[in-house]
Amino acid sequence: MCKISTGDLLREAVAEGTEMGKRAERTMKAGELVSDEVILGLVDEVLERPACTGGAVFDGFPRTVDQARGLEELLARRGESLDRVVVIEVPEDEVVRRLSGRRVCKKCGKLYHISFDPPRQEGICDACGGELVQRPDDQPETIMRRLAVYREETAPVRVHYAGATGVSAIDGDQPMDEVAAAIRRELATGDAEG
Ligand code: AMP
User: Fold this and answer.
1) How confident is the model at residue 165 (pLDDT cuts 50, 70, 90)?
2) Burial class (CB in 10 A: 0-12, 13-18, 19+), 5
3) Where are the domains of the chain?
4) How many whole angstroms from 30 Cα to the centroid of ligand 1?
5) How confident is the model at residue 194, as a pLDDT?
6) How far is the CA of 5 from the centre of ligand 1 (A)?
7) Omega before 62 cis (within 30°)?
8) pLDDT at position 107, please?
9) What pLDDT sits at residue 188?
10) Alpha helices, DSSP H only, in the chain?
């Protein structure tokens, strides 16, 4: 399966300096959502990649009920449908701790946390020696806005799926390997909420 992170796709467009990337950069810095039209266009394009013919895992998408509806259409056109929705639940104060301490390698994209998963040498990537930087939207004010946007626009997505698609809730307030194991268990067997 391929992994489709709409946030990563947008950051790639920002790095490439495309027109769409320039517009998205301002929206992301403000902690707001990029338009449903742009996001669905990106996903539609990526689903055509040969790597995605065996299926896809979406990360950070759909973020609105309209995106969820749009995804259903994109998949239906391909004779596909969604198998599973995994909600990783984390208390807001923990989300703030994780995002504000997150660092990312400018060169290879590897993620770190200054307290929970620090690099061997401060500011330097263990894997490639690249410089570690903070995402512009991991600044405190932007994090608070992103959380508000989540409550307003993204929380209803869970309600949207509750009836039709299997929703698995995972306790994300555990160490990384335990969260990963819980997700694997859910995908293998999982009792859905809806
Ligand atoms: P992420 O890497 O998933 O945390 O996304 C970073 C930022 O990219 C978000 O705060 C939004 O501004 C934008 N973004 C990513 N995915 C989406 C999406 N599915 N819909 C709208 N905006 C998105």
Assistant:
1) low
2) middle
3) 1-82
4) 11
5) 42
6) 9
7) yes
8) 94
9) 85
10) 6-16, 19-29, 36-46, 65-77, 92-100, 140-149, 155-162, 176-188
Cβ atoms 148, 128 nearer than 8 A = no
Q: What's the CATH number for 1-82?
A: 3.40.50.300
d(CA 125, CA 53): 33
Place of tokens 């299926």: 55
Q: What is the pLDDT of residues 69-114, one digit of tens each?
A: 999 999 999 999 998 999 999 999 999 999 999 999 999 999 999 9
Which of 6, 36, 40 for a ligand 1 pocket mutation test, highest count of atoms within 8 Å of Cβ?
6
Mean pLDDT of 143-166: 91
Residues 50-81 as b or e (16 or more Cβ within 10 Å = b)? eebeeebebeebbbbbbbbebbbeeeeeeeee
**Atom 4, ligand 1: residue with shortest CA distance:** 7
pLDDT tens digits, residue range 27-59? 999 999 999 999 999 999 999 999 999 999 999
**Cβ(126)–Cβ(119) below 8 Å:** yes
Determine the Cα–Cα distance for residues 134 and 129; give it in Å rounded to an integer.
Answer: 16
